[in-house]
């Protein structure tokens, strides 16, 4: 662990000990406010230390620390001692116990972290209620991993599309990681679609969302906005309708959308896959609201719009001219 982060953890441990005393002065409270608001890393470190303070392993770590020989009182915070030396000086009590536990991570992390895997079955939508009060709706076949700790909320969107209705919290952010991109919020409602390797879309229904795809490319999206990222190409999306995406209720809203994209959406819900007999048909564009939960109705609409034919085979639908 870099020295800078060790020092942040050391100071966070000191503040946890102080703020858990029966009485705090107004000066101490003001000093604490200044410290914790001066750097986002202070918030995370303090939350970790507070969680460890309340953990089952703290009493054992405290007993071990108190069994060490008595050491001199802690020096002034400006004393230029190394972190290790200062830690030894502080090592006779709760601060040393907290630091012992933080060093023991990931052991402590395992004890304090709930990790769950969810995957929606093909053709169905799965609603996931998280322990923090947030709700995640998973589109057909979508898979996520969820990790909740006392200091963070992390979701890995492994594949597919998900709608997040995030419970607001003051200290814990809510991060969605997609490998090549990350979305960060505190409390909001938004939809992420990474069903294809080439394209990522983010649509915001409530609150503000930050999108980071690396290499300095970042966006801040307010409610009523959306973005589509495909390689180096980025385009804004039209404002969403309603307070949640239509796919939850089996609908798809198309606006000059390629037929190939509509078919991809249809195949998420259809028991039988839909195939284009001529790949050029995928370049045709459609607009309107399609009930993708009823694939044959969508195929009828496509056939009527472009004078196409469709046929149902034993194991797939075929669309042709």
From TrEMBL:
This is DUF4880 domain-containing protein. GO terms for molecular function: sigma factor antagonist activity. It comes from Altericroceibacterium endophyticum. Residues 11-52 form the FecR N-terminal domain. Gene3D superfamilies: 2.60.120.1440, 3.55.50.30. PANTHER family: PERIPLASMIC SIGNAL SENSOR AND SIGMA FACTOR ACTIVATOR FECR-RELATED, PROTEIN FECR. The keyword ATP-binding does not apply. It comes from the Bacteria.
């Amino acid at each position: 662990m870099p020295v800078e982060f060790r020092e942040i953890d050391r100071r966070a441990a000191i503040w946890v000990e102080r703020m858990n005393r029966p009485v705090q002065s107004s000066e101490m409270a003001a000093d604490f406010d200044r410290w914790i608001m001066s750097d986002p890393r202070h918030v995370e470190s303090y939350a970790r230390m507070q969680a460890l303070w309340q953990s089952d392993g703290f009493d054992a770590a405290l007993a071990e620390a108190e069994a060490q020989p008595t050491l001199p009182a802690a020096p002034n915070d400006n004393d230029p001692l190394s972190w290790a030396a200062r830690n030894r000086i502080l090592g006779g009590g709760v601060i040393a116990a907290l630091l012992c536990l933080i060093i023991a991570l990931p052991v402590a992390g395992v004890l304090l972290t709930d990790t769950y895997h969810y995957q929606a079955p093909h053709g169905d939508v799965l609603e996931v209620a998280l322990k923090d009060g947030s709700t995640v709706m998973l589109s057909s076949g979508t898979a996520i991993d969820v990790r909740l700790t006392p200091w963070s909320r992390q979701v890995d969107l492994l594949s597919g599309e998900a709608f997040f209705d995030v419970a607001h919290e003051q200290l814990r952010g809510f991060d969605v990681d997609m490998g090549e991109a990350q979305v960060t919020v505190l409390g909001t409602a938004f939809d992420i679609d990474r069903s294809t390797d080439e394209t990522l879309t983010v649509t915001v229904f409530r609150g503000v969302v930050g999108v980071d795809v690396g290499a300095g490319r970042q966006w801040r999206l307010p409610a009523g906005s959306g973005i589509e990222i495909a390689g180096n190409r980025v385009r804004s999306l039209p404002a969403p309708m309603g307070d949640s995406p239509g796919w939850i209720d089996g609908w798809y809203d198309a606006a000059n959308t390629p037929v190939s994209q509509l078919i991809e959406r249809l195949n998420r819900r259809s028991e039988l896959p839909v195939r284009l007999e001529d790949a050029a048909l995928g370049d045709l564009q459609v607009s309107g609201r399609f009930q993708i939960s009823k694939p044959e109705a969508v195929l009828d609409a496509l056939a009527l719009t472009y004078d196409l034919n469709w046929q149902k085979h034993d194991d797939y639908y075929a669309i042709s001219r």
